[in-house]
Design brief:
single chain, about 375 residues, alpha+beta, SH3 type barrels, 5-stranded antiparallel β-sheet, 3-stranded antiparallel β-sheet, 10 strands
């Protein structure tokens, strides 16, 4: 046997033995790591939680780590094996061309990745500058929003409750504008595949979020129209309650029976809204009213006096302006009286009504007057 060939065979054998030993060593090392993690998982691994919600428990985390270890082990073993083959073929002159081809398969992607990263650095710097500028612009807007909301910064015609929604709106617009600026600098942004994915995502969002976008726009309109604010007592349709939440999509009210009702902003925008709180804040208060019927035998002045007395005895009724009575109807057998009184305790309207009705019963009973009104049925004999 030729000495050169023998030398080449010995070199190839040593490379093969070394590769096998390295692969065995890698397997032993990672198997040891896996056993150590399994045996002491309670000591090193803790569940991942977000507030009270547990995202991953210890068993799930351990299983993920073991899969990662196995992936790294097999990847390194395949890498050693892939490097061994061209090294061995490169020793023999007859197979050097094949070895060079194998090296090309391995080195060409690495070169492409290296030069791609190197050529992308200017674009990366541009993107970084844009993101840094946008970050500080949003921070400045947030500071201004907080100052306006707290009343430290006053802008004529701009209400404090507009601060947060305006900040959110500007933030979203800036983010969209930032994406438009960054898009041309993304790798392969001009490729048909990238453009196709962008169009597909845009179509999905536009088709799937028509109602959501409608509610968002309605939410903005409600914010700047200011028909109510958090804590106001309002009426939406037949539902009356206190506004407990108002966000970009829905409005929630809590009724006097502690029922929570959620309305999409589009429903709020297209409904007739009665705000009981605004009248109590801007004027003399909210006028509560109740009807009483009584026959014509008793002088109407006495009925007026009794109703006003009952109203004045009621808690949370304002002394000024004084309660007043309206005669709503003149029926065949009785007159309909309406007692009206002012209150600024809008949240306690139900209690005020209840006490007012009790006081009306008491004052009429004390005056010897029966609140029941006569009803007559005409019966004809055929």
């Amino acid at each position: 046997m030729d000495a050169t060939l023998l030398k080449e065979i010995i070199e190839a054998s040593l490379i093969l033995i070394a590769s096998i030993l390295i692969i065995v060593g890698i397997n032993l090392l990672f198997n040891h790591i896996s056993k150590t993690m399994t045996s002491s998982n309670k000591k090193y691994i803790k569940a991942i939680k977000f507030k009270k919600y547990q995202i991953f428990d210890e068993h799930q985390i351990l299983r993920g780590i073991l899969l990662l270890i196995k992936f790294i082990k097999y990847s390194l073993s395949l890498l050693i094996l892939f490097l061994t083959v061209p090294l061995i073929f490169g020793i023999f002159p007859e197979t050097q061309d094949f070895a060079n081809t194998l090296w090309g398969y391995f080195l060409s992607p690495l070169k492409a990745i290296f030069w791609g990263i190197l050529n992308y650095i200017p674009n990366l710097i541009t993107i970084t500058i844009i993101l840094v500028v946008v970050k500080y612009v949003i921070k400045i807007l947030k500071i201004l929003s907080n100052e306006i909301e707290k009343g430290k910064l006053v802008i004529k015609g701009f209400y404090p409750d507009w601060a947060k929604p305006t900040y959110r709106l500007l933030k979203y617009l800036i983010c969209i504008f930032t994406i438009a600026l960054i898009y041309p600098y993304l790798p392969n942004s001009d490729s048909r595949v990238f453009q196709g994915i962008s169009i597909f995502v845009g179509v999905i969002i536009s088709l799937g979020s028509t109602t959501a976008i409608g509610n968002l726009i309605a939410g903005l309109m409600i914010t700047y129209m200011r028909p109510f604010k958090i804590g106001d007592r309002i009426k939406v349709g037949e539902n009356v309650g206190k506004v407990v939440e108002k966000n970009a999509v829905v409005v929630k009210i809590e009724t006097d029976k502690k029922e929570s009702i959620t309305f999409p902003n589009m429903t709020i925008l297209t409904s007739n809204i009665t705000n009981f709180s605004s009248s109590s804040e801007s004027g003399d208060g909210l006028i509560i009213h109740s009807n009483v019927t009584y026959n014509y035998e008793v002088d109407w002045r006495k009925i007026h006096k009794l109703l006003i007395t009952a109203a004045k005895k009621t808690s949370f009724i304002e002394e000024t302006p004084e309660p007043f009575v309206l005669q709503k109807e003149l029926d065949d057998f009785y007159c309909v009286y309406e007692i009206n009184a002012y209150t600024k305790e809008v949240d306690k309207v139900m209690q005020v009504y209840s006490e007012l009705h009790k006081n009306i019963q008491d004052v009429f009973s004390k005056a010897g007057l029966d609140l029941t009104s006569p009803h007559y049925d005409i019966i004809t004999n055929k």
